[in-house]
Amino acid sequence: MNYEMIIGLEVHAQLKTKSKIFCSCPTEFGKPANENTCPICLGMPGVIPVLNKKAIQLAMRACLSTNCHIASVNRFARKNYFYPDLPKGYQISQFELPLGIDGHVNIQINGTKKKIGLTRIHMEEDAGKLIHGENLGSPGKSYVDFNRTGVPLVEIVSEPDLRSGEEAREYLTQLKSILDYAEVSDCNMEEGSLRCDANVSVRPEGQKEFGTRTETKNLNSFRFVQRAIEYEFNRQIKVLEQGDSIVQETRLYDSNKGVTFTMRSKEEAHDYRYFPEPDLVPVEISDEWIKETMDDLPELPEQKRERFVQSYNIPEYDAVVLTTSRNIADYYEKSVSLYPEPKEISNWIMGELLRQLKIDGRKIEASPIKPEGLIALLKLIKEGTLSAKMAKTVFEEMYQSSKSATEIVAQKGLAQITDSSTIENLVDEILKINTGQVEQYKNGKEKVFGFLVGQIMKQSKGQADPALVNKLLKDKIN
Ligand code: ADP
Ligand code: MG
Ligand code: ZN
Fold first, then answer.
1. Is residue 427 exposed (0-12), middle (13-18) or buried (19+ Cβ within 10 Å)?
2. pTM of structure
3. Ligand at shortest distance from the CA of 49
4. Domains of the chain
5. Which residues are within 5 Å of ligand 3 (an ion), measured at CB?
6. What is the pLDDT of residues 286-306, one digit of tens each?
7. How far is the centre of ligand 3, averaged over its atoms, from the C-alpha of 424 (Å)?
């Protein structure tokens, strides 16, 4: 029997505010434990939360840039549960009146477009973080850091519209890109500002109703989301094929073993006893405020992609890669403004630059080669000083040493040999030591020509102008 995979994702994104959602503590990452705290975010008795306006503004940007409808009245609620990282014993979150509903994000896989529905986007506060003594050399003890407590989040809940691990990953990539463009969140997964829970179920192909789902929590990389989903899909099929049924439960993913395992089953599920937060009034959002926020949104990835294809005449694929982040897009546009060769620049960014940056885990903002530097290199190719192949070597050197292309060419004597008498000498030399091959070529074995070109190029350490080599070699043999 064939099974279909059904996935819905819940994404938590940290809003880019300076202070927390209900107090004025800083949200800055990496501070000593419990430094960013006050009686409010520590949940002391009698304190009153005050809503951070910037947090609502950013959450509205998240809604509008994902095509959500903004509710003119939305309200916070208390979600009650006990856990040591939650000092108040409840989390303030939106429940029955979320900020945004009915949005969508467009994804594209192998050229096929698909619309992924968003059920809702609501605001909430983050909890703290437990640090277990095993990692600190004091086994048996656990510590709690409340720096994150009260940091503003949006939770973005998708419809169960995703059908593969690859689609889920693509959806996350697009969503992250949108939140980055709209300057809603810095989406830094290492620092926990973007986290994902994956709901997965399976159903026999052709069946209409969804199967029972499991939820795998706290996935902190796109790769892990994809792997956890694929693991869960196969696990659920196995359970069904054995004649058992899927238990609705919360699971965790062990990235070392590549497996998911039970965290808590439905019987242990919390009854959150939601009720409206009595210390906060409902939030009313005027049409004017929505319009202002809308007008203030920058060009979003999809619009930018379309513009790149149209105005630079580059393939859709290139446009997708070049718009994954605002900074990559800016880098590209800056380069094209300096040197109007859009496709050539795209090739260099996608091929050489992004590859190098990926190797050492750097973002393009931190690239040692700036647009000006890249363009200087491309101009050397155009002039004929460098062959495309040599330019790649120079590029690597530029990247490692931060020197300019001209400096490297001068220092290493890398310039392309375009002088015909020098090349003629090389050709003569190679013809002399390969008389057998020359004979073969004359007897019709044309492949040998390429071999001879290769030998000459090798002799010149790759610096001879290949077009000239071809021409002179042909002249000589004939
Ligand atoms: P909960 O609080 O129980 O996690 P939410 O409404 O916050 O519920 O999230 C439910 C998520 O699970 C949504 O992303 C939704 O698309 C997804 N989902 C619901 N039913 C299924 C199903 N049968 N299979 C896969 N995903 C599902
Ligand atoms: Mg959930
Ligand atoms: Zn505080």
1. buried
2. 0.83
3. 3
4. 3-292 (no CATH), 299-412 (no CATH), 420-477 (1.10.10.410)
5. 23, 25, 38, 40-41
6. 999 999 999 999 999 999 999
7. 77
